[in-house]
Specification:
Helices cover 5% and strands 40% of the residues. It contains four helices and 59 strands. Strands 39, 41, 42, 45, 46 and 47 form a six-stranded mixed sheet that branches. A four-stranded antiparallel sheet has the order 3-30-29-28, with no helix packed on it.
């Protein structure tokens, strides 16, 4: 039977009364504690933070702290005795939970991402690849009351990473990465109730184990991530409130243990096996309310909000033993570094760093290489190329490669019989491009290649994809590599674009043809450096007119058919501008993400909003509330504006820009007819080369009138708004135009744009026109009824396309087709 003892320790605080840990099931061990055991870990450093620390995660040599009101803190712990606060990044809302992972890019690179739970913003993501220069991906997800996260990064870089969110309202939601934008999470509507309040998640072998403070541990089938298929299949209650969880399974096994931070109870250990109902094997009662847990090398570290850090030996899960406690004022989270450092987030003391017995075991292998490519270079040589994996999946630098080849396809079964290449290169940092020449092969023979990667702890990746190539016989065909154009974007007539490619010929033949074809027009390239046998670099430089281009390189050695690279997009030649607003602009909203936009179309803008007279002439009706032939038409839906564009185009003998079928509208981008501007086209036209809040200058008053009853002077000069026309619209062209000769870009009436409304990203955008689908369309410019801040050049708003209002009209543009 379990025995209870009581002990008081002045070092733990009033909440720490004594404890005995005892198994409550047959066969469980028990532990009587008459004094607090000496901790194998001790505090070696503290980092005060500018806000309460709510959670912590570790990646490599850096700790990332969810800092509540202050956002995201990044601390360098490469020297655990001297940690350095590198950066504090202000997140959108209250940062309350965090996980960090190295994730693969579609282009083969690697990006480190911090995933932060921020209340109603859901999960926000931040690029922390450069730990002292955090960049927001400017995205949030669906969520109501999010809690803990689990990030599942696949060993195959071609697959999406998966984010599991424990949420009070929905139980568990699942998000998947977008392959084109590393930090963008797609929500496919997949969730399942856990029948209580989900607090934390651990996922293993297709099963999610959810710490639920009412149900204990709920087991969810996530082998197929589809709504209805993902569902809770079993659960096992705990004595307290399950707040944190980590599942540990031996490699290749579906059976292991779940370690649960069970609030006021302490540590609960459960036997788990796939979807079976978990079985409680032991309970270790602890002297505080534990809320977070990390298990590493047979040791469980539990953060307790009223006791600090609890350290438990769980090498025998049936008989866990408390081996130490490190008091802190209010521990909220815990993380461990492979170096052996343990970090604790504490609401009062910030980040606390502890040292202990030494480094933890490295049990994470490098990622599997999935992009191995082979190409014959000469009659005895084949060149392999790939992107380097990391040391731990995609993070860090691995130790060595094992490159093997055979004349038959390679698999795990015949891997030992394949020939190992000699002189393999050392791995580069995760995501870096690498190549290697396999020498001494037989001419005219097909070979198959595969690679395994090993880290410095002996962990080995899975076998790579199988690549094959045939060594040439006779005169060797040349090859082309590293084709590029720089810069990718530029201004018409002034930017010099440099096209380069490396030509390699195993026989040393100089090229009889060396051209770059730019949108079908061939241009001779000249030798820049090198020689054909080892790689000769050829270059062509030019300026280009406005437009979007594509290019390919074509070379011939005079003996074999010409070789060409695949057609590649770029360069893109256009007028670029900064869309969005800087962080210090008065009155800005978070959706005005500042980024570069390149426009390659030449667009003619109407210099005024469509008037009631113009609308009446084309459509035969005037739906406006404020009647006046020279006033802008209003009370029109987005669909009404589309219909006007097409009808006016037909009247003027132009090709309609839109094909309309019910509520489905398709834009013919090669048409010369009238249309609505894209959001980017609108803002560029509005700004007319300016970067201030208004095209006429900065903003002085965010609402209607200042304290003296005066309108904003910048806006008053160019637009009608609540400060100078608070009851109705005005005739168009009643204020000064902007530098492009356009009137009423600020105020009078909102103007419909083509785009579906969506979040913006900081990435360079080329001729953006919004997402393919959505719920609301963009409107721009503000109106007679709205505050000054709403009339700024960068201000964005969304409106249902089938809705109308007396503050909403439109302006037309057309693409100049040459």
């Amino acid at each position: 039977m379990p025995r209870w003892s009581r002990v008081v320790s002045s070092g733990i605080g009033a909440a720490a009364i004594a404890i005995v840990a005892a198994g409550l099931l047959p066969g469980c061990g028990e532990q009587d504690l008459y004094e607090v055991p000496d901790s194998p870990y001790r505090i070696i450093a503290r980092v005060p933070l500018p806000s309460a620390a709510e959670d912590v995660a570790v990646l490599g040599n850096h700790a990332y702290i969810a800092g509540g009101e202050a956002g995201l803190h990044v601390v360098d712990i490469s020297d655990p005795h001297n940690p350095i606060l590198m950066e504090t990044f202000d997140t959108k809302k209250f940062a309350e939970s965090i996980k960090v992972a190295s994730t693969p890019r579609i282009d083969g690179g690697v990006v480190d991402i911090a995933f932060v739970v921020e209340g109603t913003e859901g999960i926000t993501t931040y690029d922390v690849t450069d730990p002292d220069s955090t960049i927001s991906f400017q995205q949030g997800t669906t969520a109501v009351d999010g809690n803990g996260l689990f990030i599942e990064v696949p060993p195959n870089p071609s697959e999406p990473y998966v984010v599991y969110l424990a949420e009070n309202w929905k139980g568990m939601r699942i998000f998947e990465s977008d392959p084109t934008i590393p930090g963008l999470l797609r929500y496919n509507g997949v969730f399942t109730s856990t029948r209580g309040y989900a607090k934390s998640i651990s996922v293993a072998n297709g099963w999610a184990y959810v710490a639920d403070d009412e149900m204990g541990v709920a087991v969810v089938d996530v082998r197929v991530r589809t709504l209805g298929v993902v569902k809770t299949v079993s659960a096992e209650d705990t004595p307290g409130k399950a707040l944190g969880i980590q599942v540990v399974l031996p490699e290749g096994s579906t059976s292991g243990y779940a370690y649960v931070a069970d609030g006021p109870t302490g540590l609960v250990v459960m036997k788990v096996n796939a979807g079976d109902k978990p079985v409680t094997t032991s309970i270790l009662r602890l002297p505080a309310v534990v809320r977070s847990i990390v298990v590493r090398d047979g040791t469980a570290f539990l953060a307790a909000q009223d006791g600090g850090l609890m350290i438990v030996d769980v090498r025998d899960p049936v008989n866990p033993v408390l081996i130490g406690m490190v008091p802190t004022p209010y521990a909220t989270g815990v993380g461990v570094a492979t170096s052996g450092a343990v970090v604790v987030s504490d609401r009062t003391d910030g980040l606390i760093v502890l040292g202990g017995p030494g480094p933890f075991e490295d049990d994470t292998p490098p990622a599997r290489i999935g992009d191995l490519v082979a190409a014959g270079i000469d009659s005895t040589t084949i060149r392999l190329s790939w992107r380097a994996p990391g040391d731990d999946l995609y993070n860090g630098i691995a130790e060595s490669y094992d490159i093997r080849y055979a004349t038959a396809a390679i698999s795990d079964a015949n891997w030992p019989e394949a020939t190992q290449a000699q002189g393999e290169p050392a791995p580069a940092p995760g995501g870096a491009a690498q190549s290697f020449d396999v020498l001494g092969l037989a001419p005219g023979t097909t070979y198959y290649f595969a690679v395994k990667t090993t880290d410095d702890s002996g962990n080995e990746s899975g076998i790579s994809n199988i690549a094959s190539a045939t060594t040439p016989s006779g005169n060797v065909p040349p090859s082309l590599s590293l084709g590029s154009v720089s810069p990718a974007f530029g201004e018409p007539g002034s930017t010099t674009f440099v096209f380069e490619v490396t030509y390699t010929d195993g026989d040393g033949d100089t090229p009889s043809e060396a051209v770059v074809s730019i949108s079908g027009e061939a241009h001779a390239m000249t030798l820049r450096s090198g020689e054909p046998r080892t790689g000769a670099i050829y270059r062509y430089e030019t300026t280009l007119d406005l437009g979007s281009y594509e290019h390919l390189f074509r070379f011939s050695d005079g003996h074999n058919p010409a070789v060409e690279t695949p057609v590649a997009a770029g360069p893109f030649v256009g007028q670029s501008f900064q869309m969005g607003s800087p962080a210090n602009e008065v009155g800005r909203d978070p959706d005005e993400v500042l980024h570069t936009v390149v426009m390659t179309r030449e667009v003619e803008f109407s210099d005024h909003e469509v008037t009631q007279d113009e609308y009446q002439t084309v459509m035969g009706i005037n739906p406006s509330r404020f009647v006046g032939s020279g006033r802008p038409v209003e009370n029109v839906t987005w669909y009404d504006a589309i219909a006007y564009c097409n009808a006016r185009s037909i009247l003027e003998g132009k090709t309609p820009a839109y094909a309309v079928e019910g509520l489905d509208v398709a834009w013919n981008r090669d048409a010369d007819g009238w249309r609505l501007p894209t959001e980017a086209e609108w803002e560029r036209a509005c700004r007319a080369g300016t970067t201030s809040a208004f095209s006429s200058g900065g903003i002085f008053e965010t609402a209607c009138l200042d304290s003296l009853g005066n309108p904003d002077p910048s806006l008053d000069a160019v637009g009608w708004y609540c400060g100078n026309s608070p009851t109705e619209t005005q005739n168009v062209k009643g204020k000064q135009p902007n530098d492009a000769g356009l009137y009423d870009m600020h105020g009078n009436v909102w103007e419909w744009c083509w785009d579906w409304y969506d979040s913006l990203t900081p990435d360079v955008a080329l001729d953006p026109s919004g997402p393919e689908t959505g719920i609301q369309r963009v409107r721009r410019g503000g109106s007679w009824y709205h505050y000054a801040r709403v009339c700024r050049s960068a201000s964005r708003d969304a409106y249902f396309p089938n809705s109308k209002d007396d503050v909403l009209g439109f302006r037309v543009v057309r693409t100049l087709i040459r």
